[in-house]
Write a structure and sequence with these properties.
binds adenosine-5'-diphosphate, 31% helix, alpha+beta, nine-stranded antiparallel β-sheet, 11 helices
């Protein structure tokens, strides 16, 4: 797996259980995944030489993020390296212009948008779609870093500083955000996880509820159908997460794609028969996929954003307080607002599960001492 973040780290237990040799290409030895591997390769995923050296030791190469340059991916593919997902598929998760164009071609609804060349074009877009306008850089964004919400042309300079296309997008007054996670193998087998609700704050996911509470079953099936269609049409191999807006009229608009295990699927480690990490591995190895079914009526996952320096004193309290709580800690240096871990609880009383998960995350962040 190229990348040494928490997604690679959480893939490792699945690889251990399946008895699959698993390595990562990480930037440093103390990156989240590299810490827990016996033999990570330390290198730079933007260097073709490093990617080639890493791929030489692999039967199959997959990814924990989208930041590998597309031209390097094509060079590796030309070398004959089995890349899963393929560079062509991955391109749609790397470039929002490419993704929006392809989804529109497939007849899949997205927020109304237009590629613009300068801040001067923002008012014309707003005349058609209203203020505020959402601006996004086509490439390089994650966790909301490439997203701006602006009220005027004067406020729209920032996105144009990077030398990449900028998309103006209607600000959708959505009822909530949903995510449909599917896994697909090269032979075309696919499974769809229950559709979840994901709650974002400042562009970062803070909470996921599986399944999305009160989602009518026909809409849930529609969300899964959209994700399975995208996976099949783009020939995605591995996990595909499709982030959507559920509008107040009940429509589904696709916002974003990720072709790797995704934050909105972390609940599946503790809450599903087969985790997204295991199904990602099974898919890229072309093994039969495991059941994505939930093991409890609800699972609630809360991210820990920032935290206390020493986690053990907090563990003594939260683990004793809630023996059913599952904690996943990523071993990352703690900085305010950084995703450093998550907690999950599963059961049938949703409001109680949310209270328990939020309490544990708040305690780990040092925001409560109860
Ligand atoms: P990134 O790729 O950086 O994660 P996203 O496109 O997923 O960026 O946007 C991050 C968050 O910003 C979304 O989850 C959503 O909460 C908000 N957002 C993005 N686009 C829109 C939009 N058109 N209307 C309203 N909110 C949006």
């Amino acid at each position: 797996m190229v990348g040494g973040g928490q997604l690679a780290r959480m893939t490792q237990p699945a690889a251990i259980n399946l008895g699959v040799g698993f390595s990562v290409l990480a930037k440093t030895r103390d990156e989240s995944a590299a810490q827990v591997m016996s033999d990570p390769m330390i290198g730079d995923e933007t260097s073709l030489a490093d990617l080639r050296a890493f791929a030489a030791g692999c039967d199959v190469v997959t990814f924990d993020h989208e930041q590998v340059p597309p031209e390097h991916l094509r060079a590796l593919a030309a070398d004959g390296v089995p890349l899963r997902p393929s560079p062509d598929a991955l391109h749609h998760a790397q470039d929002k212009v490419v993704m929006r164009a392809r989804l529109t071609e497939l007849g899949i609804a997205c927020p109304p948008h237009r590629i613009i060349k300068s801040p001067d074009e923002v008012p014309a877009f707003a005349a058609d779609h209203g203020w505020p306008v959402v601006l996004k850089t086509a490439r390089g964004g994650y966790d909301g870093t490439g997203v701006w919400v602006v009220m005027s042309a004067a406020a729209a300079a920032e996105p144009f500083r990077a030398d990449v296309p900028v998309i103006a997008e209607e600000r959708i007054d959505f009822a909530r955000e949903l995510s449909a996670v599917v896994a697909r193998s090269p032979s075309g087998q696919a499974v769809a996880y229950p559709v979840v609700e994901s709650v974002q704050r400042d562009g970062i996911c803070v909470e996921v509820i599986a399944p999305a509470p009160g989602l009518p079953s026909d809409r849930a099936v529609e969300a899964q159908r959209i994700a399975l269609t995208i996976a099949a049409e783009l020939d995605v191999v591995g996990v595909l997460a499709v982030e959507m807006f559920e509008t107040r009229d009940g429509d589904l608009l696709v916002n974003e794609l990720a072709m790797r295990p995704h934050n909105s699927g972390h609940w599946s480690i503790d809450g599903a028969v087969t985790s997204q990490f295991e199904n990602h591995l099974r898919a890229v190895l072309d093994l039969p996929l495991g059941s994505p079914a939930a093991r409890a009526p609800y699972a609630v996952m809360v991210n820990v954003l920032g935290g206390l320096p020493g986690v053990y004193p907090a563990y003594r309290h939260i683990l004793a307080r809630d023996p059913e709580l599952k904690v996943h800690w990523y071993g990352k240096t703690i900085r305010p607002g950084r995703k450093v871990g998550h907690v999950t609880v599963c059961g049938d009383n949703l409001s109680e599960l949310r209270e328990r998960a939020w309490h544990a995350a708040d305690y780990l962040r040092g925001e409560t001492d109860e």
